[in-house]
Design a protein that fits this description.
- This protein is of the alpha/beta class and about 260 residues long.
- It is built from eight helices and seven strands, in the order H-H-E-E-H-E-H-E-H-E-E-H-H-E-H.
- It has helices at about 15-40, 50-60, 85-95, 110-115, 130-145, 195, 205-210, 235-255; strands at about 65-70, 75-80, 100, 120-125, 145-150, 180-190, 220-225.
- The chain has a seven-stranded mixed β-sheet, with helices on both faces.
- The longest helix is centred in the first third of the chain and has 30 residues, at about 15-40.
Length: about 260
């Protein structure tokens, strides 16, 4: 007889209290940021509120973000590894980037609303007929936000290595638009990576609660690596391969320290 899939690990009372406190703080942060967001939008001012909100979410969740390397300030397309839901608020807080996300997220009204405030570009990965339209959306988003990020693995890994990069997710960069820099980014959770990674049979909500229940802080180092240049920018396949090689090399160097 096949064994049943183990359920989520029970969360102790203190962990449940941390979840309640952190969720309350996140809701309070949202109530502060939303009016500011719409006011800045009406005034047509550069809008800092999505970055402040997402960076605040990462901090409330217990993430201590450290930054190394020089980030491209204008016209950046970041290619990053993907370990946890924490990647989005942490990277957005560190860089102000908007994101390319699969259109399945748009099925959840509240999540879609939050994503749209950060200028998220939703793409239908299996709809070949809309590829040209999606490429146009991505290029417009880069022009408007100055920074856009994508996770070329297409899903989360355990944080100790990299999955293959899907070059199809880089179609909008083939060829690279004028004035756009393609910059690899390593999100390094160190020894905590395997513990916080969302992989296997774990439900997303269980992973979310498990991380919020943590007592000790979580250090994340965001490594902005050298932007791709020369032959690496020839097409989407060379970009995917070069970015993966750069991120993997940085991950191996970090783990050996």
């Amino acid at each position: 007889m096949a064994s049943a899939i183990a359920g989520p690990t029970p969360i102790p009372a203190l962990g449940k209290l941390r979840i309640a406190v952190r969720l309350s703080a996140m809701i309070a942060l949202l109530l502060v940021c939303v009016p500011g967001y719409y006011l800045w939008r009406v005034l047509r001012l550069p809008n800092p509120w999505p970055r402040l909100f997402l960076g605040g979410i990462a901090a409330i969740a217990g993430v201590d973000v450290q930054i190394t390397g020089e980030r491209v300030r204008r016209g950046a397309f970041f290619l990053s590894n993907h370990v946890s839901w924490l990647d989005v608020p942490a990277l957005a807080g560190a860089s102000g980037a908007a994101f390319v996300a699969h259109d399945g997220l748009a099925a959840y009204p509240v999540l879609k609303w939050l994503c749209e405030m950060n200028d998220t570009v939703f793409v239908a990965r299996h709809d070949r007929a809309s590829v040209a339209e999606q490429i146009a959306q991505v290029r417009t988003a880069i022009a408007e936000t100055n920074a856009l990020a994508v996770f070329p693995e297409g899903t989360t890994s355990d944080g100790t290595g990299l999955l293959p990069f899907k070059s199809s997710l880089l179609s909008a960069l083939d060829p690279v638009p004028a004035g756009i820099a393609v910059q690899p980014v390593l999100l390094d959770y160190g020894v905590e990576a395997a513990d916080i990674a969302w992989v296997g049979e774990e439900h997303g909500l269980d992973n979310f609660k498990r991380i919020l229940a943590r007592g000790r802080p979580l250090r994340l180092t965001v490594h902005f690596l050298v932007p791709l240049a020369g032959e690496a920018l020839r097409d989407r396949k060379t970009m995917a391969a070069a970015a993966r090689e750069a991120i993997l090399e940085a991950l191996q160097m970090s783990s050996s320290v």
